[in-house]
Write a structure and sequence with these properties.
Structural class: mainly beta
Helix content: under 10%
Oligomer: single chain
Number of strands: 11
Strand content: over 45%
Shape: globular
Radius of gyration: 13 Å
Length: 115
């Protein structure tokens, strides 16, 4: 059974940084594209970043140059380094594992950017 568990969220002041982690088990992690999404209150879930099994990355326009997605296949862990955070980055952040037939989601971690 696939399980994804996010951690690292919290309350940070504007301009600060956070590092989110997503621990995966139940799958051969290295075989799959992984992604981070976020959902703010009253808004649709938004793609933040993706990383393929080969390490190619892609970012949403709103986070380009500020966020970095990476993966540690030896530890089955997905990382999102978030810098220069803004109040509009406030959301629940979810990790996703993509297979050819099904997508798996974690439970999410809250990120709040406020003074």
């Amino acid at each position: 059974q696939v399980q994804l568990v996010e951690s690292g969220g919290g309350l940070v002041q504007p301009g600060g940084s956070l590092r989110l982690s997503c621990a995966a088990n139940g799958m051969i992690f290295s075989r799959y594209t992984m992604a981070w999404y976020r959902q703010a209150p009253g808004k649709q879930r938004e793609l933040v970043a993706t990383i393929t099994r080969g390490g190619s990355t892609n970012y949403g326009d709103s986070v380009k140059g500020r966020f970095t997605i990476s993966r540690d296949n030896a530890k089955n862990t997905l990382i999102l380094q978030m810098n220069t955070l803004k109040p509009e980055d406030t959301a629940v952040y979810y990790c996703q594992l993509r297979t050819t037939t099904l997508d798996y989601w974690g439970q999410g971690t809250q990120v709040t950017i406020a003074s």
